[in-house]
Design goal:
heterodimer, A: 478 residues, alpha+beta, Dna Ligase, domain 1, B: 207 residues, alpha/beta, two-stranded antiparallel sheet, globular
């Protein structure tokens, strides 16, 4: 077995910072009843903040410091998001604090060797430089230790383990103060020192706990670990470091969520067609935004581009503090056979339609088709642009005498001197047709249609309702 | 005229820098017949391809002039995009006039800015053979953008504009004034490529 360990020392900071804006940031932890700096970003470090510093002291030194209580809950969520992404590389994933461990041995052949695998992971990592601290080792514990202490270490053989681990200080392996004290007392400081001693004597002095650790480290005993399983529903939240007022500024944090979603989808072999965005405000109801895709996808850039265009329609009800992306109904990817000429008309069409719809809304872009009905107001309906049904046989020669434009619903015409009036007195040109239809569904019509012209010469399609004698305008010929 | 001047003139003619009044009636570059012989004669062959045309008319009429063109272009596997038409297109009647309504894409938006954006996207997409746009107010600069979009992507755009705006200068390749007349349409060519329109035409093409 080969375990690939990834260490995320910045994760406690990353769960807060997300908007690219550079501000000094630190997370704190409770230590002996007071808040101390747990870790800080490079900007804060440059200004003299360091881990272990009490919070009041740090604030006195740097009043602009953004300090947040360390949020393990969010860290766990972020780790799970990373695991969702990593699921595409290995189905055996386990966690240590701020560490993710993948069993890579089984998938090395698939990806063409370890360096190819690592390169591919780096190329599509969900966020910039988050995979810097990695290590490969035969045991999960060794991978975890090396990723923290000696990033970049790559041990393929058990035989090399002892040699590589020998000079690592013991306190990196265990935090147990009694054991550490004891070892210091007898002059042992590194793992190698321990391994150099006869095993029974060492075991008698330091107890079983350290021995178990050492055995697991060196693959002498199995190290059973609970394995992670991805959830069925993708849902991820991102806390924004500073509130966002302009919809356009949401694009940057959205990239992280979308990248994470796409990793999740690749891991599960899925694609997505509907995304639900929620933008949370301080004191208003969350703003919801639905994003739809014409064709299921898991391309980060494609989804982001449509998101960007959807933003132009978005009206926020306040400043955004937190954003959430949810996908409940992702679907399994249907691998189609590729076309000989990949970027065919169909794909082009969809991209064009998606672009229009993302900005204008999907109800603004439609197709139109014939419905089998004699009543003009029911003889058509809007439809999905790509799904227009065959119209063959539904159109008769009689339709050629009907106008090209229709009013959405017939408009009652006023009468003057007993004649219908529209921008002037109408001249009836010719009788068009008599229509009697719809008696079966309660909306029966009995109409006499005429072609009429206005004084300036516009050509109208009007009818007289035979029961009431009222005149209606229904369409225009020109 | 000496020989040198004659060859110089021939070169200029070849480059298309000079046009001759006598060729005004003939078909010039890329055009699609309008389906009305009289109109083709006055516009140099019909609707210009890869260019913008404008129709100035009261209440957006003049659409029926386009029916032969729509029937022709509807045979291609590309969209006929209609941005903000004034009424509902009556599909059975269009089908009966050989317009393939399966290729019709309707875009209905609230404001002018969005309709211009949509029209430009459609012109630039390479997925549309024809883009129709009904618009109330539009600046010369936006028309220029649309004309460039049509030119660069070899797409045809036709704008329906209110009659009152016909005096505004524009980049469009063809400009027609259309008014209703005696059951048909009266068409006056305001501007065309390589020539001038003649007398107003009467076309009995209303529907």
């Amino acid at each position: 077995m080969r375990w690939l360990g990834f260490y995320f020392p910045q994760l406690p900071l990353d769960v807060f910072a997300s908007d690219g804006e550079a501000v000094p940031l630190a997370v704190t932890r409770r230590d002996g009843g007071r808040d101390v700096i747990d870790r800080c970003n490079s900007l804060a470090r440059e200004q003299g903040i360091c881990a272990g510093m009490p919070l009041p002291g740090a604030l006195a030194l740097l009043p602009g410091l953004q300090a947040r209580q360390r949020d393990r809950n969010r860290e766990r969520q972020a780790m799970e998001a990373l695991a969702g992404w990593a699921w595409q590389y290995s189905s055996r994933i386990s966690f240590d604090p701020l560490l993710m461990l993948l069993e890579a041995g089984a998938s090395l052949k698939l990806f063409g060797g370890f360096s190819a695998l690592l390169e591919q992971m780096h190329q599509d990592q969900p966020c910039m430089d988050c995979l810097q601290h990695w290590a490969l080792a035969p045991s999960p514990m060794a991978a975890s230790l090396l990723a923290r202490v000696r990033p970049g270490a790559c041990i393929h053989d058990r035989g090399q383990l002892v040699e590589q681990l020998a000079d690592i200080p013991l306190q990196n392996l265990t935090q147990n103060s009694r054991t550490l004290e004891l070892m210091r007392g007898i002059g042992l400081s590194s793992i190698g020192d321990c391994l150099g001693l006869p095993r029974p004597e060492l075991a008698r002095r330091v107890g079983p706990e350290l021995m178990l650790l050492l055995d697991r480290l060196l693959c002498r005993t199995p190290d059973p670990r609970p394995l992670w399983h991805p959830p069925e529903v993708f849902s991820q939240r991102l806390l924004l470091l500073s509130e966002i007022n302009h919809a356009s500024a949401l694009l940057f944090p959205a990239r992280r969520l979308v990248a994470s979603l796409c990793g999740f989808l690749r891991g599960r072999g899925g694609v997505v067609q509907h995304l639900q965005w929620r933008f949370l405000h301080r004191d208003a109801e969350p703003t919801l935004m639905e994003q739809g895709l014409l064709r299921p996808s898991r391309e980060v850039e494609h989804i982001l581009e449509l998101f960007r265009q959807s933003l132009e329609r978005l009206e926020l009800s306040g400043a955004v503090m937190e954003m959430e992306l949810q996908v409940a109904d992702w679907q399994a990817l249907q691998e189609d056979a590729d076309d000989l000429f990949p970027c065919g008309q169909g794909v082009q069409d969809e991209k064009f339609l998606e672009r229009l719809r993302a900005r204008l809304g999907s109800e603004a872009v439609r197709g139109i088709q014939v419905q089998a009905d004699h009543r003009p107001e029911r003889a058509w309906c809007y439809c999905e642009p790509m799904e227009t049904a065959e119209t063959g046989g539904r159109v008769s020669a009689g339709h050629a005498r009907q106008p090209v434009w229709l009013l959405p619903r017939p408009q009652l015409l006023s009468l003057r001197h007993g004649r219908p009036w529209y921008e002037g007195e109408l001249q009836l040109q010719e009788f068009s047709q008599r229509m009697e239809s719809g008696w079966w569904d309660g909306e029966d019509v009995q109409r006499d249609y005429y072609r009429a012209s206005t004084p300036v010469g516009r050509q109208l399609w009007i009818y007289r309702e035979r029961r009431s004698g009222n005149w209606f305008l229904q369409g225009f010929f020109d | 005229m000496n020989a040198e001047a004659r060859t110089g003139l021939a070169a200029l003619l070849r480059q298309g820098v000079i046009w001759r009044g006598s060729s005004a009636g003939r078909a010039s570059a890329a055009v699609i017949s309008s389906g009305f012989p009289l109109l083709d004669e006055q516009t140099g062959g019909g609707w210009p391809r890869g260019a913008l045309s404008e129709i100035f008319s009261p209440q957006g009429l003049g659409f029926s002039l386009l029916l032969p063109l729509l029937a022709e272009l509807g045979r291609q596997q590309q969209w006929l995009t209609w941005v903000n038409p004034p009424h509902v297109p009556y599909v059975p009647a269009l089908e009966a006039r050989q317009v393939n309504t399966a290729r019709v894409l309707l875009v209905k938006v609230r404001d002018t800015e969005q309709s211009l954006w949509a029209a430009e996207q459609a012109l630039r997409s390479g997925n549309c053979s024809l883009v129709l746009l009904w618009v109330e107010r539009v600046s010369a600069a936006r028309i220029r953008r649309l004309q460039l979009a049509a030119e660069e992507n070899d797409c045809m755009g036709i704008l329906f504009r209110p009659l009152q705006q016909r005096r505004q200068a524009s980049m469009a390749a063809l400009r027609l004034q259309v008014t209703p007349a005696g059951g048909g349409l009266q068409v006056q060519v305001l501007k065309r490529r390589a020539g001038w329109g003649g007398k107003p035409l009467y076309l009995s093409c209303a529907g």
